Amino acid sequence: MVRTKLILLTIAAFMAAGSTGIWLLISEKRAAQERREQFFGTSKKYPTSGGEKMKVEW
């Protein structure tokens, strides 16, 4: 009886540690992706009014 409880407790501890590790890994990847998008991202606004006309040079 005690051995069965010990085995179940060990399995539960391994599963809890594994899920916590996976959760931390996923959250770190998501945070890294957000930092990457902020650093390399471009603005989504492209203002086209009030600028200079393009001069074609040949």
Structure description:
By secondary structure, the protein is mostly helical. The chain has one domain (1-41). Helices cover 67% and strands 0% of the residues. It has one helix and no strands. It comes from Rhizobium terricola. Keywords: Membrane, Transmembrane, Transmembrane helix. This is Entry exclusion protein TrbK.
SSE order: H
Structural class: mainly alpha
Number of domains: 1
What distance lies between the first and last C-alpha atoms, to the nearest angstrom? 91 Å
Count of helices?
1
Strand percentage lies at under 5%
- Dominant shape: rod-shaped
Describe the largest sheet: none
Low confidence ranges: none
Rg from alpha-carbon coordinates = 27 Å
Kindly state the percentage of residues in helix.
55-70%
Q: What's the short version?
A:
The chain is an all-alpha fold and 58 residues long. It has one helix at residues 2-40.
Which features characterize this protein?
single chain, 58 residues, mainly alpha, rod-shaped
